Structures are given as structure tokens and as C-alpha cells.
Amino acid sequence: MGKRWISAALKAVCIITLTVWSIGPIALVVLSSFKEAKNIFETPYKVVFWPTTENYRTLYETGPEFFRGLVNSGLISFGAITTTIVVTFLAGYVFARSRKATHNGIAFFMLFIRMLPPIVIVIPLYPVVSYLALNDTHILLVLLYSSFYVSLGAWIMRSFIREIPIELEESAAIDGASLFQMIRMIIIPLSKPGIITVALFVFVFAWNEYVFAMIFTTSGARTAPVVIAEWLSTAEGVQWGTIFAASTIQLVPVMLIVLCLQRYLVTGLTAGAVKG
Amino acid sequence: MRHDRSHKWLLLPSLLLIIVFLAAPAIYVGWLSVHESTFGKQPVYVGLQNYARLVEDPVFWRAFWNTFFVVNGIAYGELILGLLVAVLIRDQRYGRPLLIAVILAPYAITESSGIVMWRYMLEPDVGILSTLISKIGFGTVAWSSDATATLALASLIAIWHHLPFTFLILFAALLIIPKEILEAAEVDGASRWQRFMRIELRIIIPAILIALMFRYIFAIRLFSEIWLLTQGGPARLSEVLSIYLYKETFQYREFGIASAVGWVMVLMSLAIALPYIVRMYREIARHG
Predict the structure, then answer these.
(1) Which one of A110, A232, A274 has the shortest CB-CB distance to B116?
(2) Which of A151, A165, B26, B173 is the most exposed place for a label (fewest CB within 10 A)?
(3) Could A240 and B105 be called an inter-chain contact, meaning their C-beta atoms sit closer than 8 Å?
(4) A116 with B214: Cβ contact below 8 A
């Protein structure tokens, strides 16, 4: 009996450690965003306290660029999600249905491309982007983020569309349906889980992306993560309270979506990574 | 099927995006790596001179070895933690969905907020963790002045961020192990530890290899964690390859050198991915 008790206690310790490791840092920042600025580094740290919206008010008054950043993040995420879904859906459909060697070759090429480290492309891209005056535009980040997720997206779509019985299309073809009609009436409604999966991956990436947004934007299309990072590396003392409020606001939408759609994350990862 | 001819048009948008934004620039970088190039000057062919300059640059080697240690630390640290957590959750009977949600949470956090969180806890003298560490007697946390500490912290943050990925892959693999095998082993008198080491671990080896490969490839790209902690400082001691590349591009405007580093990163990634690429090629060729 004693042994079982020990193993139960050990398990409980493991689960508590895991929880603290995983959401401790997040909870700490969210909690501290409701503390008075002067109490943020108090010792001992009080978990129970009278919450104040002081930091959020300061953020509202002194950080308009953060809210513009949120709008930019939203626009860019929306653009990247739409673009990626459309192009990867079409490609995934071909990969799922075609037996042609060239199409298999292209599917393989996409897998291969995923291995390249994207930071490499900034060397030639930066001068070209400046020349075309695409610097600091939403469209550039939309196209970049979409192209980063074409490979994974097309492979996820492929695995979902493959599950749809081909007989449905065959009988529709006999009835004289065009390719466009078939895709619209049969494939799109039946591949909704695949579409949601791709949308989820792209949203989490585009909403949170830092490196390319930092390199390719200055003010007009600057995203929220870049604004937060800038505030963190300021020379004249970090305003922790304001940053906590900004981080909290930034993470709420993406956290909610990840929690609601987490089962798609699991299927998407196994479809996109394990099987290929 | 009779719609086959339209297929190539459906592939076109995806291909265009990939070629314009990834394939063509990557190939151009390869070309640029054998040229001397800076702002406002025509590139001049110099052969392997850029690579020779890299080999002679101690800062490059520092960045190379930093990358080596960080990547291995992240990949294996995540693998061990991921396995522990996957087994823990697999054996958990109650509250599993809630626990999985908890584990996935860091995946939703942007890198810059992740840095905010960890810096807040480790701010010298005042952060919750740094005061705890000095109370236990490990001295002060010098993540900003000691390059080793910077790299260790960056690895820790990267592991925190990406554990959900490794966990999900390993967890999914553990779930599909047939129960009968484990039950039979139990009947034969195998202990839990033996069952794990001799049976489960062997069955999920393919998933382990895939998780490792993807983590290797993505860890080579590590940038934000170190950039937002120290920008590679002090004295360029905590740089990794991607930061070296960034600085050569945007601070020193040595596009040829930057491209050589870029090509080194590309080749490293491809070499690591080679077994996977070959396997996928065979699978595609076989099943289509």
C-alpha cells in the first residue's frame, strides 16, 4: 500500500511541476499586469492582491503604436490565412487526386523547401523589397508568411482531401459537373477540418511572428510582437507594467483560439509532420 | 480523370509563392556566396574567398559552436522532457484534456512575450527566479554578461516554447501502441521500466527521429531568443549563425559573407534532413 501512495504522490508532484513550468510564466505576467507598477517586483510576490487597471490605462494613453500594431497583426494574419488556405487547398487537391509523376515531384519539392532556413532569404530579398518600395507594407508580410506555410499547408490539405471518397467526384463528373463545381459542392464542404487546421497554424504563426516583421517593417505595418520587443529593449528603463498589459492583450485572442481548436493542432501535426 | 489538364493551374499559385520567396532567393544566395558584394556595388566573382574568410573568422567559429551546443541542447532537452511528459499524460486517467491544454499553452505565445516573461522572472536582483536562485546559494544570474548563461537561457526559453510540438508528436506515437503487446509483456513479468525501455521506446523510434530532425532544423534557425536577450553580446560572444548572418547583412553590409553563412546553414539543414527526405522520396515514388 505504501508503494502505491508514494507513486501517487510522485505523480502529483510531476503534474504540478509540469503545470508551473508550462503556464507559470504566462500566469505571472498576466497577473502582474493587474498590479500597481510599484508592486511588480515586490518581495515576497503576492498572488492575492487588489487588481488595478492602471497599467492598461497607461498603455492606452502612452502606447498608440501598440494598438496600431494589433490592427496590423490582425490584417496581416487575415491576409496570410486567406491566401494560404486558397493556394494550399488547390495544391493539396491536386496532390490528393493526381497520379502524375510531375505532381508527385512537386509535392516532394515542397517538402524539401521546408528544410531551408527562411532567414537566409533576407539577404537578396531586402534590396529587392526596398527597390520595389514594398518595405513596411502589409502585403509583403502577407506574401512572406503565406509562402512559409505553403509546404505544410499543401501537405495537410492533401492528407485531409485523400480521406474524401473519390466516388463522389466520379459520380459528379458523370453528371457533368465542372472541376470548379466539384470542388465547390463536394470537396470544400468535406475538407473543412483540413481548412481549419491550416488556418490555425497560419494564424498562430502570423499573429506571433517576430523576425521578419522586425526586419521588413518600420512603422506603417509594424506588428504587435515587434512593438513589445522594442519596448523591452529601450535604453531608458523598461516599463514592465505597460509591457505586461500589452503582452496580455496580445495573447488573449491566440490563446483562446488555440484552446478551442487544440484537437486540430494534434491532427495537423500528425498529418504534416509524422506522415510527411 | 477528365479534369487532369486543369491540375497544373491549380498548382501554380503555390509554386509561384515558393519559388519567388524561398527557392529563387536561396539559390541566389548560393550564387552570391562566391561573390564579393556590398551596398551599391556590382558583385565581383571571388570563388571560395568568402568561405575562406569565414574559416579564418573567430567570431564565425564562436557562432558555429554556439549554434552546435544550443541546437543539441534544445533537441535532446526537448526529447527527454517530451518523453517524460508524454508518458505522464498517457498514464493519466483524469483531467487529460485539461492537462494537454496546459502543455500546449506556450505554443500560443509570441517570442517577444516569451522573452518578457522569462526576463521578468530572471531580472537581476529583483526577479522571482533570480532571487530564489541566489537564496539557494547559486549566486547571481548573469544572463546578460555571461555568454554561456545567455545561451543556456535562450535554450531554456526555446525548449519552453516548442515542447508542445515534441510532446504532441511523441504522445500521438505512444497512443497508437497496441495495448495487447504491453499486456502480454506484463503477463510475462516485465516491469514497467522494462516495458518502457524494451517495447514502447523501440516502437516509437520513428516518431522520436522525426521529432529530433524537425527540432534540429528549426533550432538552427534560432534567432529571436538570443537577439532579444543580448543581440549576441557581450562582444559577439553569444551569437548563433542566424545572428551572425543578420549582422553581416544589416550592420556590416557584407552580403557575400552573409550569403556564405546562409549557405552553410542551408547545407547543415539539408544534411540533417537527408534521411527523412530520402525516405519521403521513396514513399512518394512508391505510393504516389
Answers:
(1) A232
(2) A165
(3) no
(4) no
